[in-house]
Design a protein that fits this description.
It contains 11 helices and 14 strands. The chain has 328 residues and is an alpha/beta fold. The protein has a single domain, classed as Aldolase class I (TIM Barrel, Alpha-Beta Barrel). The chain binds S-adenosylmethionine and iron/sulfur cluster. Iron/sulfur cluster binds at residues 21, 23-25, 28-29, 67-69, 97, 119, 323-324.
Amino acid sequence: MLVDNYGRKLDYLRLAVTDRCNLRCTYCMPVGGLDWIRKSELMTDEEMLRICSLFVEMGIRRIRITGGEPFVRKDLIKFLEKISSLAALHELTLTTNGVVTAPFVPELKRIGVRSVNLSLDTLDKERFIRIAHRDELDNVLRTLDALLKYNVEIKINAVVMENLNIEDIVPLVRLSKSLPVSIRFIEEMPFNGGSYQAGLHWNYKRILAHIREHFPDIQKIPDAPNSTSYNYHIPGHLGNVGIIAAWSRLFCGTCNRIRITPSGIIRTCLYDNGKVNIKDILREGASDEGLKEWIRHIVSTKAKDGWEAEKNRDNHEPVHESMATIGG
Ligand code: SAM
Ligand code: SF4
Protein backbone atom coordinates (compact mmCIF):
# COMPACT_ATOMS: atom_id res chain seq x y z
CA MET A 1 0.00 0.00 0.00
CA LEU A 2 1.36 3.43 -0.94
CA VAL A 3 0.28 5.98 1.65
CA ASP A 4 1.62 9.53 1.74
CA ASN A 5 2.40 11.65 4.80
CA TYR A 6 -1.16 12.99 4.86
CA GLY A 7 -2.69 9.50 5.01
CA ARG A 8 -3.81 9.53 1.38
CA LYS A 9 -3.76 6.12 -0.25
CA LEU A 10 -2.19 6.36 -3.70
CA ASP A 11 -3.69 3.79 -6.04
CA TYR A 12 -3.78 5.67 -9.35
CA LEU A 13 -0.80 5.97 -11.68
CA ARG A 14 -0.70 8.19 -14.75
CA LEU A 15 1.98 7.08 -17.18
CA ALA A 16 3.03 9.37 -20.04
CA VAL A 17 4.43 7.14 -22.78
CA THR A 18 5.73 9.94 -25.02
CA ASP A 19 5.99 13.74 -25.14
CA ARG A 20 5.46 13.80 -28.91
CA CYS A 21 2.19 14.78 -30.44
CA ASN A 22 0.37 15.14 -33.75
CA LEU A 23 -1.43 18.31 -32.58
CA ARG A 24 -0.13 21.62 -31.24
CA CYS A 25 -2.87 22.66 -28.82
CA THR A 26 -2.14 26.24 -27.92
CA TYR A 27 -2.63 25.61 -24.18
CA CYS A 28 -0.16 22.69 -24.23
CA MET A 29 2.79 23.42 -26.50
CA PRO A 30 4.23 25.97 -28.94
CA VAL A 31 3.37 25.65 -32.66
CA GLY A 32 6.96 24.69 -33.36
CA GLY A 33 6.72 21.76 -30.94
CA LEU A 34 8.95 21.08 -27.98
CA ASP A 35 12.55 20.28 -27.42
CA TRP A 36 11.56 16.59 -27.63
CA ILE A 37 12.99 14.10 -25.16
CA ARG A 38 15.79 12.15 -26.86
CA LYS A 39 14.84 8.60 -27.81
CA SER A 40 17.59 7.20 -25.60
CA GLU A 41 16.03 9.04 -22.65
CA LEU A 42 12.52 7.70 -23.25
CA MET A 43 11.60 4.65 -21.24
CA THR A 44 11.45 1.47 -23.28
CA ASP A 45 8.36 -0.75 -23.18
CA GLU A 46 10.23 -3.21 -20.96
CA GLU A 47 11.25 -0.46 -18.53
CA MET A 48 7.71 0.92 -18.34
CA LEU A 49 6.34 -2.56 -17.78
CA ARG A 50 8.79 -3.32 -14.98
CA ILE A 51 8.11 -0.01 -13.25
CA CYS A 52 4.33 -0.41 -13.61
CA SER A 53 4.40 -3.95 -12.27
CA LEU A 54 6.32 -2.75 -9.18
CA PHE A 55 3.75 0.00 -8.66
CA VAL A 56 0.94 -2.54 -8.98
CA GLU A 57 2.67 -4.77 -6.42
CA MET A 58 2.76 -1.70 -4.16
CA GLY A 59 -0.97 -1.01 -4.40
CA ILE A 60 -1.62 0.85 -7.65
CA ARG A 61 -4.97 -0.35 -9.00
CA ARG A 62 -5.65 2.05 -11.88
CA ILE A 63 -3.25 3.05 -14.62
CA ARG A 64 -3.99 5.79 -17.14
CA ILE A 65 -1.85 5.95 -20.27
CA THR A 66 -1.30 9.48 -21.48
CA GLY A 67 1.34 11.68 -23.11
CA GLY A 68 1.94 13.61 -25.45
CA GLU A 69 -0.30 11.64 -27.72
CA PRO A 70 -0.07 7.97 -26.68
CA PHE A 71 -0.92 6.72 -30.19
CA VAL A 72 2.16 8.30 -31.77
CA ARG A 73 4.21 5.80 -29.77
CA LYS A 74 5.09 2.74 -31.85
CA ASP A 75 3.36 -0.50 -30.89
CA LEU A 76 1.20 1.11 -28.20
CA ILE A 77 -1.39 -1.65 -28.45
CA LYS A 78 1.21 -4.34 -27.74
CA PHE A 79 2.33 -2.40 -24.69
CA LEU A 80 -1.26 -1.95 -23.48
CA GLU A 81 -1.82 -5.69 -23.81
CA LYS A 82 1.14 -6.35 -21.53
CA ILE A 83 0.09 -3.79 -18.94
CA SER A 84 -3.48 -5.05 -18.93
CA SER A 85 -2.25 -8.51 -17.99
CA LEU A 86 -0.87 -7.30 -14.64
CA ALA A 87 -3.06 -9.43 -12.40
CA ALA A 88 -3.81 -7.00 -9.57
CA LEU A 89 -4.59 -4.07 -11.86
CA HIS A 90 -8.31 -3.21 -11.75
CA GLU A 91 -8.48 -0.61 -14.48
CA LEU A 92 -6.50 0.49 -17.52
CA THR A 93 -7.66 3.71 -19.17
CA LEU A 94 -6.18 6.22 -21.56
CA THR A 95 -6.35 9.83 -22.64
CA THR A 96 -6.10 10.62 -26.34
CA ASN A 97 -6.65 13.47 -28.76
CA GLY A 98 -8.43 11.03 -31.09
CA VAL A 99 -6.50 11.99 -34.25
CA VAL A 100 -5.38 8.46 -35.16
CA THR A 101 -7.28 6.50 -32.49
CA ALA A 102 -10.44 5.36 -34.33
CA PRO A 103 -8.98 2.23 -36.01
CA PHE A 104 -7.61 1.03 -32.65
CA VAL A 105 -10.90 1.19 -30.76
CA PRO A 106 -11.86 -2.48 -31.38
CA GLU A 107 -8.43 -3.47 -30.02
CA LEU A 108 -8.86 -1.24 -26.97
CA LYS A 109 -12.17 -2.92 -26.29
CA ARG A 110 -10.62 -6.38 -26.66
CA ILE A 111 -7.78 -5.49 -24.26
CA GLY A 112 -10.33 -4.34 -21.68
CA VAL A 113 -9.90 -0.56 -21.80
CA ARG A 114 -13.30 0.33 -20.36
CA SER A 115 -13.05 4.11 -20.42
CA VAL A 116 -11.30 6.69 -22.60
CA ASN A 117 -10.83 10.42 -22.09
CA LEU A 118 -11.08 12.15 -25.45
CA SER A 119 -9.85 15.72 -25.77
CA LEU A 120 -12.18 17.90 -27.82
CA ASP A 121 -12.22 21.66 -27.26
CA THR A 122 -14.54 22.66 -30.10
CA LEU A 123 -17.00 21.24 -32.62
CA ASP A 124 -16.14 23.92 -35.15
CA LYS A 125 -13.58 23.10 -37.85
CA GLU A 126 -12.07 26.60 -38.08
CA ARG A 127 -11.75 26.97 -34.32
CA PHE A 128 -10.24 23.50 -34.09
CA ILE A 129 -7.49 24.62 -36.46
CA ARG A 130 -6.96 27.82 -34.47
CA ILE A 131 -6.62 25.87 -31.24
CA ALA A 132 -4.74 22.75 -32.36
CA HIS A 133 -2.96 24.11 -35.46
CA ARG A 134 -3.94 21.00 -37.43
CA ASP A 135 -7.04 20.20 -39.53
CA GLU A 136 -8.06 17.04 -37.66
CA LEU A 137 -11.56 17.59 -36.26
CA ASP A 138 -13.11 14.99 -38.61
CA ASN A 139 -10.69 12.33 -37.39
CA VAL A 140 -11.38 13.16 -33.74
CA LEU A 141 -15.13 12.86 -34.38
CA ARG A 142 -14.49 9.50 -36.09
CA THR A 143 -12.87 8.34 -32.85
CA LEU A 144 -15.86 9.59 -30.86
CA ASP A 145 -18.17 7.55 -33.13
CA ALA A 146 -16.00 4.45 -32.79
CA LEU A 147 -15.91 4.71 -28.99
CA LEU A 148 -19.71 5.05 -28.93
CA LYS A 149 -20.12 2.10 -31.29
CA TYR A 150 -17.95 -0.14 -29.11
CA ASN A 151 -19.59 1.01 -25.88
CA VAL A 152 -16.42 2.40 -24.37
CA GLU A 153 -17.18 4.89 -21.57
CA ILE A 154 -16.26 8.37 -22.82
CA LYS A 155 -15.21 11.49 -20.97
CA ILE A 156 -14.70 14.46 -23.26
CA ASN A 157 -12.09 16.95 -22.00
CA ALA A 158 -12.40 20.56 -23.12
CA VAL A 159 -10.02 23.26 -21.89
CA VAL A 160 -11.88 26.57 -21.56
CA MET A 161 -10.00 29.45 -23.19
CA GLU A 162 -10.86 33.11 -23.35
CA ASN A 163 -11.17 34.28 -27.00
CA LEU A 164 -10.82 30.75 -28.36
CA ASN A 165 -13.68 28.43 -27.50
CA ILE A 166 -16.19 30.12 -25.21
CA GLU A 167 -18.83 29.80 -27.95
CA ASP A 168 -18.24 26.04 -27.83
CA ILE A 169 -19.28 25.55 -24.22
CA VAL A 170 -23.01 25.34 -24.96
CA PRO A 171 -22.72 23.11 -28.09
CA LEU A 172 -20.43 20.76 -26.14
CA VAL A 173 -22.91 20.61 -23.24
CA ARG A 174 -25.63 19.80 -25.81
CA LEU A 175 -23.67 16.71 -26.84
CA SER A 176 -24.61 15.25 -23.46
CA LYS A 177 -28.30 15.44 -24.41
CA SER A 178 -28.28 12.56 -26.86
CA LEU A 179 -24.93 10.93 -26.13
CA PRO A 180 -23.97 8.95 -22.99
CA VAL A 181 -20.81 10.97 -22.46
CA SER A 182 -19.45 13.11 -19.67
CA ILE A 183 -18.36 16.54 -20.97
CA ARG A 184 -15.71 17.96 -18.66
CA PHE A 185 -14.62 21.56 -18.85
CA ILE A 186 -11.10 22.16 -17.54
CA GLU A 187 -9.68 25.40 -16.18
CA GLU A 188 -6.71 26.37 -18.33
CA MET A 189 -3.42 25.82 -16.51
CA PRO A 190 -0.09 27.47 -17.35
CA PHE A 191 1.48 24.24 -18.64
CA ASN A 192 2.01 25.25 -22.24
CA GLY A 193 5.72 24.95 -22.78
CA GLY A 194 6.59 28.61 -22.45
CA SER A 195 4.46 31.47 -23.67
CA TYR A 196 1.79 31.53 -20.98
CA GLN A 197 0.09 34.84 -20.35
CA ALA A 198 -0.69 34.86 -16.63
CA GLY A 199 -4.29 35.11 -15.49
CA LEU A 200 -7.07 32.58 -15.39
CA HIS A 201 -10.06 34.11 -17.19
CA TRP A 202 -12.47 31.20 -16.84
CA ASN A 203 -12.43 29.60 -13.43
CA TYR A 204 -14.82 26.82 -12.42
CA LYS A 205 -17.36 29.30 -10.99
CA ARG A 206 -17.52 31.31 -14.19
CA ILE A 207 -17.76 28.16 -16.32
CA LEU A 208 -20.64 26.86 -14.21
CA ALA A 209 -22.43 30.24 -14.25
CA HIS A 210 -22.16 30.32 -18.05
CA ILE A 211 -23.59 26.81 -18.38
CA ARG A 212 -26.36 27.61 -15.90
CA GLU A 213 -27.42 30.66 -17.93
CA HIS A 214 -28.22 28.33 -20.81
CA PHE A 215 -29.33 25.28 -18.80
CA PRO A 216 -31.00 26.74 -15.69
CA ASP A 217 -32.22 23.36 -14.40
CA ILE A 218 -28.69 21.87 -14.23
CA GLN A 219 -28.32 19.89 -10.99
CA LYS A 220 -25.34 18.86 -8.88
CA ILE A 221 -24.86 15.10 -8.70
CA PRO A 222 -22.57 13.17 -6.32
CA ASP A 223 -18.88 13.02 -7.26
CA ALA A 224 -17.07 9.68 -7.24
CA PRO A 225 -14.39 9.30 -4.54
CA ASN A 226 -11.12 10.97 -5.65
CA SER A 227 -12.95 12.67 -8.51
CA THR A 228 -11.16 15.67 -10.00
CA SER A 229 -14.42 17.00 -11.46
CA TYR A 230 -17.51 18.55 -9.91
CA ASN A 231 -20.31 16.74 -11.67
CA TYR A 232 -23.72 17.88 -12.85
CA HIS A 233 -26.71 16.56 -14.70
CA ILE A 234 -29.25 18.32 -16.88
CA PRO A 235 -32.67 16.67 -16.64
CA GLY A 236 -33.52 14.88 -19.89
CA HIS A 237 -29.86 14.49 -20.93
CA LEU A 238 -28.30 11.07 -21.40
CA GLY A 239 -24.84 12.18 -20.31
CA ASN A 240 -23.38 14.45 -17.64
CA VAL A 241 -21.33 17.61 -17.35
CA GLY A 242 -18.21 18.05 -15.23
CA ILE A 243 -15.98 20.96 -14.30
CA ILE A 244 -12.35 20.45 -13.35
CA ALA A 245 -10.87 23.21 -11.19
CA ALA A 246 -7.36 22.29 -12.27
CA TRP A 247 -5.82 25.71 -11.72
CA SER A 248 -7.82 26.53 -8.58
CA ARG A 249 -6.66 23.14 -7.23
CA LEU A 250 -9.72 22.29 -5.19
CA PHE A 251 -9.37 18.52 -5.41
CA CYS A 252 -5.92 18.10 -3.85
CA GLY A 253 -7.23 16.99 -0.45
CA THR A 254 -8.33 13.63 -1.84
CA CYS A 255 -5.52 13.22 -4.37
CA ASN A 256 -4.70 9.55 -5.02
CA ARG A 257 -2.48 10.15 -8.05
CA ILE A 258 1.14 9.72 -8.96
CA ARG A 259 2.68 10.48 -12.34
CA ILE A 260 5.57 9.17 -14.39
CA THR A 261 6.88 11.34 -17.22
CA PRO A 262 8.03 9.83 -20.55
CA SER A 263 11.66 9.95 -19.42
CA GLY A 264 10.88 8.26 -16.10
CA ILE A 265 10.67 11.16 -13.67
CA ILE A 266 8.21 10.47 -10.87
CA ARG A 267 5.98 13.44 -10.04
CA THR A 268 3.81 13.23 -6.99
CA CYS A 269 1.91 16.36 -8.04
CA LEU A 270 1.20 18.06 -11.36
CA TYR A 271 2.70 21.21 -9.85
CA ASP A 272 5.95 19.81 -8.47
CA ASN A 273 8.99 19.53 -10.71
CA GLY A 274 9.85 15.92 -10.11
CA LYS A 275 12.98 14.99 -8.25
CA VAL A 276 13.83 11.38 -9.01
CA ASN A 277 14.22 9.62 -12.33
CA ILE A 278 13.25 6.01 -11.68
CA LYS A 279 14.33 4.85 -15.15
CA ASP A 280 17.87 6.12 -14.51
CA ILE A 281 17.98 4.21 -11.21
CA LEU A 282 16.68 1.11 -12.98
CA ARG A 283 19.35 1.49 -15.70
CA GLU A 284 22.03 1.66 -13.00
CA GLY A 285 21.02 -1.91 -12.12
CA ALA A 286 18.78 -1.41 -9.09
CA SER A 287 16.96 -4.45 -7.77
CA ASP A 288 13.17 -4.54 -7.52
CA GLU A 289 13.43 -3.97 -3.76
CA GLY A 290 15.80 -1.03 -4.34
CA LEU A 291 13.34 0.53 -6.80
CA LYS A 292 10.49 0.04 -4.33
CA GLU A 293 12.51 1.80 -1.63
CA TRP A 294 12.91 4.78 -3.95
CA ILE A 295 9.21 4.78 -4.77
CA ARG A 296 8.30 4.77 -1.05
CA HIS A 297 10.73 7.62 -0.47
CA ILE A 298 9.29 9.70 -3.33
CA VAL A 299 5.73 9.11 -2.13
CA SER A 300 6.74 10.37 1.31
CA THR A 301 7.63 13.72 -0.28
CA LYS A 302 4.18 14.29 -1.81
CA ALA A 303 3.06 17.83 -1.03
CA LYS A 304 -0.19 18.57 0.79
CA ASP A 305 -1.61 20.29 -2.27
CA GLY A 306 -0.69 21.88 -5.58
CA TRP A 307 0.05 25.24 -3.94
CA GLU A 308 2.63 23.72 -1.62
CA ALA A 309 4.10 21.65 -4.48
CA GLU A 310 4.50 24.78 -6.60
CA LYS A 311 6.11 26.68 -3.73
CA ASN A 312 8.60 23.85 -3.17
CA ARG A 313 9.81 23.66 -6.78
CA ASP A 314 13.61 23.64 -7.01
CA ASN A 315 13.94 26.77 -9.11
CA HIS A 316 10.98 28.62 -7.53
CA GLU A 317 9.93 29.61 -11.04
CA PRO A 318 6.25 29.56 -11.91
CA VAL A 319 5.12 26.40 -13.65
CA HIS A 320 5.38 26.61 -17.41
CA GLU A 321 6.55 23.26 -18.82
CA SER A 322 4.32 21.57 -21.40
CA MET A 323 1.60 19.27 -20.18
CA ALA A 324 2.89 16.83 -22.82
CA THR A 325 6.14 16.38 -20.93
CA ILE A 326 4.34 15.80 -17.64
CA GLY A 327 1.45 13.69 -18.85
CA GLY A 328 -1.81 15.53 -18.35
N1 SAM B 1 -2.65 14.04 -26.17
C1 SAM B 1 -3.65 13.52 -25.33
C2 SAM B 1 -4.83 14.42 -25.27
O1 SAM B 1 -4.74 15.58 -25.64
O2 SAM B 1 -5.88 13.95 -24.83
C3 SAM B 1 -3.16 13.19 -23.95
C4 SAM B 1 -2.20 14.15 -23.30
S1 SAM B 1 -2.86 15.73 -22.92
C5 SAM B 1 -1.46 16.53 -22.21
C6 SAM B 1 -3.90 15.33 -21.54
C7 SAM B 1 -4.93 16.35 -21.17
O3 SAM B 1 -4.28 17.50 -20.69
C8 SAM B 1 -5.82 16.81 -22.33
O4 SAM B 1 -7.16 16.56 -22.01
C9 SAM B 1 -5.55 18.27 -22.42
O5 SAM B 1 -6.70 18.98 -22.76
C10 SAM B 1 -5.06 18.62 -21.04
N2 SAM B 1 -4.22 19.81 -21.01
C11 SAM B 1 -3.09 20.03 -21.70
N3 SAM B 1 -2.59 21.25 -21.42
C12 SAM B 1 -3.43 21.83 -20.55
C13 SAM B 1 -3.46 23.08 -19.90
N4 SAM B 1 -2.52 24.00 -20.10
N5 SAM B 1 -4.47 23.33 -19.03
C14 SAM B 1 -5.45 22.41 -18.82
N6 SAM B 1 -5.47 21.19 -19.42
C15 SAM B 1 -4.48 20.91 -20.28
FE1 SF4 C 1 -1.00 17.08 -27.99
FE2 SF4 C 1 -2.69 16.45 -26.02
FE3 SF4 C 1 -0.94 18.49 -25.79
FE4 SF4 C 1 -2.94 18.74 -27.48
S1 SF4 C 1 -3.12 18.49 -25.25
S2 SF4 C 1 -0.78 19.25 -27.91
S3 SF4 C 1 -3.20 16.71 -28.18
S4 SF4 C 1 -0.44 16.37 -25.92
